[in-house]
Specification:
Oligomer: single chain
CATH topology of the largest domain: Chalcone isomerase
Mean pLDDT: 83
Helix content: 10-25%
Strand content: 25-35%
CATH architecture of the largest domain: 3-Layer(bba) Sandwich
CATH class of the largest domain: Alpha Beta
Number of helices: 5
Number of strands: 13
Distance between the termini: 68 Å
Order of helices and strands: HHEEHEEEHHEEEEEEEE
Radius of gyration: 19 Å
Shape: globular
């Protein structure tokens, strides 16, 4: 890797690369991978941290000043830029519940993975058009720099795809003021509303009458997609922060669902027959 690439390296991408978390399904790589491990990622500038309740991880995001300046100025991310996400397992108590510091944040444990997003001309040529992220490619590495054979790389492309207008960067959208802050997301509290916050559905179980519609509103910084568990696999559109999606339930029964981008997120709609 050239010195210029290493200098820009060390940027961890937002939620998208996060989809390549340790412990997910077998490797799903949509094309030839050209991303090398950025040896000097930890020498970059840490610009954000994120707690991930769904995977019990604490994550650090790194970049270099030139990349941040380009994003804030509305300029294209420079060719050769490498973004790196350092995923640490959160420290947990005897019951497996993440421990928190005085500020209510997860306490960092052992490094679990180093997830990388690199922009380079031609990187997207071999990626299927349906999920192509411009000239970006993704790779997940173990802490010792070896490719993580358990990473679902296709999920990275799917998670970042809705952010095409922001160069497929999720956390950087905050720097540009593109998405509303948590306080600006108007969450609905009706009898058929479900909020998505902190990588969880609330309420986890919702009871409705057959024929009613359920509305999900996403308040997280990362995109989510409601996917029904079952043969039909019906799903909503991907919801960015502040967006909502609605689905109607006509038949009585218990309908389980997950987030199509973060399958550890689960919920249930209990549909009762009309009197």
């Amino acid at each position: 890797m050239s010195k210029s690439v290493v200098r820009r390296a060390a940027l961890v991408v937002g939620a998208g690369v996060a989809c390549a978390a340790v412990g997910q399904q077998a490797l799903v790589n949509p094309g030839p991978n050209k991303v090398a491990f950025p040896e000097n990622w930890a020498k970059g500038v840490m610009y954000a941290t994120v707690d991930r309740p769904d995977t019990k991880q604490y994550r650090e995001f790194y970049t270099t000043p030139d990349v941040i300046e380009a994003v804030r100025a509305g300029k294209p991310v420079p060719d050769g830029a490498v973004l790196t996400l350092a995923a640490y397992m959160a420290q947990v108590d005897a019951n497996g519940v993440p421990l928190k510091d005085a500020n209510g944040r997860f306490i960092k444990g052992n490094l679990a993975a180093v997830n990388v997003q690199q922009k380079k001309k031609g990187h997207g040529d071999d990626i299927p058009a349906a999920i192509r992220n411009g000239d970006w490619q993704y790779q997940s590495f173990t802490p010792d720099g070896k490719p993580n054979e358990k990473a679902n790389l296709t999920a990275c492309y799917q998670c970042h795809l809705p952010f095409a207008k922001d160069e497929f960067l999720t956390n950087f959208a905050k720097l540009k003021g593109t998405f509303p802050s948590a306080a600006q997301v108007a969450l609905k509290s009706g009898a058929t509303d479900v909020s998505i916050t902190g990588f969880s559905f609330g309420p986890t179980t919702l009871k409705v009458v057959a024929g009613e519609k359920v509305t999900w509103t996403n308040a997280d910084y990362t995109p989510h997609q409601v996917t029904l568990v079952g043969a039909d696999g019906k799903r909503t559109d991907v919801m960015l922060k502040g967006q909502s999606a609605t689905m109607q339930f006509d038949a009585a029964g218990n309908i389980a669902y997950t987030c199509g981008l973060h399958p550890t997120m689960k919920g249930t709609v209990e549909v009762v027959a009309k009197n």
